[in-house]
Amino acid sequence: MKKFILLLFALLTVVSVSAQSRSIRGTVVSAADGEPLVGATVVPVGGGSGTATDLDGKFHLTVSNKVSQLTVSYIGMKPVTVPVQDNMTIRLETSDTRLDEVVVTGYGSGKKLGSIVGSVAVIGEQNFENLTTPTFVDALQGQVAGLSIFSSSGDPSSVDNQIRLRGLNSLNAGTTPLFILDGAPVTQTVFTTLNPNDIESITVLKDAASVAIYGSRAANGVIVITSKKGKYGQQARVTIRAKYGWSQLTPDKVDMMNSDQYIEYRDKIGQPVSQGIKDLVNKHGISTNWRDEIFDGSAPTYSLEGAVTGGTERTSYYISLNHLNQEGIIAQSGMRRETMRVSVDSKVTDWFRVGLQTNLGYTKYETNNESGASYSGDGLYATNPMVFARKALPYDSPYYYTFDDNGNIMWGDRAEYLHYSGMPTPDYIRSGRSVLRNRLTINAALYEAFTPIKGLTLRAQQAVDAYDTRLKNLGFPNETLYTPMGDVYANGGTAGELVTGYNQQSFSRYYSFTYTNTAEYNFNIADVHNVRALVGEESIISQSEGFGVFSEGQSDRRQMLLTQGTSVAISDLSESLVRTVMNSIFAQLSYDYDSKYFFDFTYRRDGSSKFAPGHRWANFFSVGGMWNIKSEKFLQPYTWLDDLKFRISYGTTGNSSIDNYMYYGLIGAGNVYNGQGSLGISQAANSDLTWETVKSFDLGLNFGLFNILDVDVDFYNKQTCDMLLEIPYSYTTGFDGGWGNVGGMRNRGVDVDVKANIINTRDWTWNVRANFNYNKNEITDLYDGLDELPFLNANVIYKVGHDAGSFYCVKYAGVDPRDGQQMWYTKDGNLTKVFNETRDSQILDKSQYSPWSGGFGTDLRWKGLSLRMDFTWAAKKYMINNDLFFITNNNFATSYNQRVEMLNVWTKPGDITDIPAPGQALQIDDRWLEDASFVRLKNLTLQYSLPKAWVNKACLSGVNLHFTGRNLLTFTSFTGYDPEPESNIVAFFYPNTRQYEFGIEVSF
Prior knowledge:
Blueprint: H1 2-20, E1 21-30, E2 41-44, E3 51-52, E4 58-64, E5 69-73, E6 80-83, E7 88-92, H2 97-100, E8 102-103, E9 111-112, E10 120-124, E11 147-151, E12 161-165, E13 178-181, E14 184-186, H3 190-193, E15 199-205, H4 208-211, E16 222-227, E17 237-249, H5 259-268, H6 275-284, H7 290-294, E18 299-311, E19 315-327, E20 334-347, E21 352-366, E22 375-376, E23 379-380, H8 385-391, E24 399-403, E25 409-414, E26 417-418, E27 423-424, H9 426-431, E28 433-450, E29 456-475, E30 481-482, E31 488-489, E32 501-525, E33 529-554, E34 573-593, E35 597-608, E36 617-628, E37 641-655, E38 666-669, E39 679-683, E40 692-705, E41 709-721, E42 724-728, E43 737-741, E44 744-760, E45 764-781, E46 788-791, E47 796-799, E48 806-809, E49 811-815, E50 822-825, E51 831-832, H10 837-840, E52 842-847, E53 852-862, E54 865-875, E55 878-881, H11 883-887, E56 929-931, E57 934-945, H12 948-953, E58 958-966, E59 970-972, E60 985-986, E61 993-1003
Parallel strand pairs: 1-7, 13-16, 55-60
Antiparallel strand pairs: 1-4, 2-3, 2-5, 5-6, 8-9, 10-15, 11-12, 13-14, 15-16, 17-18, 17-61, 18-19, 19-20, 20-21, 21-28, 22-23, 24-25, 26-27, 28-29, 29-32, 30-31, 32-33, 33-34, 34-35, 35-36, 36-37, 37-40, 38-39, 40-41, 41-44, 42-43, 44-45, 45-53, 46-47, 48-52, 49-50, 50-51, 53-54, 54-57, 55-56, ...
């Protein structure tokens, strides 16, 4: 009886559940051609889990009887909400995704791209997939008109990028755009600790109408990063990616001499090598290409990551983990990274939502101590691998060798010291030390959003950007090195004596808390008047602190603790503490009439502790308007015109990117006097120090033609006022200089962006794109009536009416064929053989800042096979190639290898050459100034998606295979290691690398 009752209860339960739910079947197709849409998302409205369509566009759902509607969406199509029916067919129409895409440009809710008054550009997640570098910044190069990005180093852990948006806005203050991650400002440490695959999109804000809401931090533009999040009602999806690749040196245009050429060259200049060396080369053929020996041609990279995303009716989530390990192409460089990202959003009630986005990153990396250092006294750091590869003599061998009784060569171990070059190898230097750095970062943002009435949203956000960095630099005790070839290297000490070690350790911590509170009200009047009002308050509290210690005298590798040294000087101790506070209020009013006429007004008031009392607060604003001309009735008959908009804006923004406490009169520690410490005035006060302001005007036109072509054109004019500048003081004041608000600068230019959707069918798509920026930079004012400020040691000059990066040096006139002497031009254009930098330096029509820059690329897809190529370029960009001074110099001939061109050295009257006769001191003049313009294939990705029929059989939702190449081609006339750095001078920098990578992505 008991069993019968239980069975009856179970049957009644099944009947009850069946009565409360029903099964729905249907098909989703394209309205244009009736083709089934594979992978379209179908979600019940009001509760329940969604599903995706199969290979035939069909779906099957079990939903509650309470559900009366379904929402159907597909990439590139307009989403629809339809009544529930069985065996239904749902037709989706193509949408202009570029205009309908919702992007975040500031505080509050996002806007559709087609309704934004300001000048903005959006880079989608496809740009950040399959990157070969740890930093997402690499993917931005050449993608946005007006955004120029130049990488100064190929070190895997480097965040050394020159990022400028529409020109250089300041001479001495910061020029890097403000980076915003999920609504909160972040530092450049996020470049290597944010996994690029966790990025949903990046929005670049360029004009005053779009950036004024950020006020004093927005003078250099704003880059808004939006991370990936889950979707409500989305079925859980797991994605796993694995990649493996390798890096190598990008080819340069310098050919160093081989042994035969070097011997010939030494004979030409009258300083022949010994007969023993000639016999060694002739008999045993020793001729080493040190570039191949020093740079790793297959430095490995591997990455493994996984992500889970999905959601229920009330909660959405995205969780990812990433491990990356990348070795550098030189000794002692590389990085290991672990990241974890968690994003959770929850609809607690219909009127209350909360969410948390957090990114945790850990990096452990090595940085070669000498890779960025060139000079040691009057010479070079020969252990800088970039120097060593040029300097080492070709008849030195990478292996030790001796000779037997019959004169046969006998090879030994890898050389740690070069016999003829007389210097240790980078590998030997590396074996004597350990330089490790690690960084722990966290970026987190918690928000609470209330919707008490329709259209009104009250939102509070608390965010933190923080990191801890630690350095552990050990120099091990070293005994004298005795080589099998009879060389003795004492490691800077006395032969036969131990050189003791050292231990340097430092720790620094940075954190910034951002508290943002906003009220946003959206309402509509008569279906044509759309209004959005936003007010807000923000506080940013930042602090950085650090300390360090250096002890020396450690005598055993096994006892390397700080306390096991024998001495610590006061100068070997360091400590720092910096606090900054910024408070702000802001408001924005947006209005559009019937999606035709758009108006924006923005106001912000900022106060910063960086400036003097009475000058801490400043007001910033913008006004902007847009006319959607295409929506006018008189243009409706012209169906070939897809889009036509006119934009105009004006506004002000600020810059406070200087060090803290610059307005204070500071007291610092002085020298030890009579065994006691002392105090001294270390900085003069400036009680008037205040904001640098940029006034911006923008005029824009957007149009689309034949559903194929999209063109954006912007003209801009930016004027920097009250420029923050370091002013030289007379030494009679007791100071060499200080900060002030003096000078002015103007940037005027044009952005052009063109996209063409040439083919778009079921099996084929082909898109091409190109953009460029022209920017004319000009200094309009300096200080104290000066119209120029030369820097002879840097060969640049600040001069009113000229570019801020103008070169200033003596013009080289070549070699006199009669006597082989160097010649220069005086300021008057006459020839002279007497070098006088002070008298004859002149402004050259050449700048380190490229006035022309841009990018172009294409996407081609056939069924599951796709190809993407991205090029970046810069024109009329110049740099002093200081490498040439050492490898094109007769004075270094006996200890440095030289370029092959040195075989053209002047040896007798009548020789026509640009290489002077031996015995002359070379000067830093414009012969070393080279055109560093370049075109570079930044990215090439070939991807294949396995057919759905194969994938479904394995119970998977997708399998993608890809190959990615980075910097595969570079076209330039620059002869240094790399044309990309944006600097007045390069000297044996760590070059950018060429990379190859293969990967697989599996999702289910």
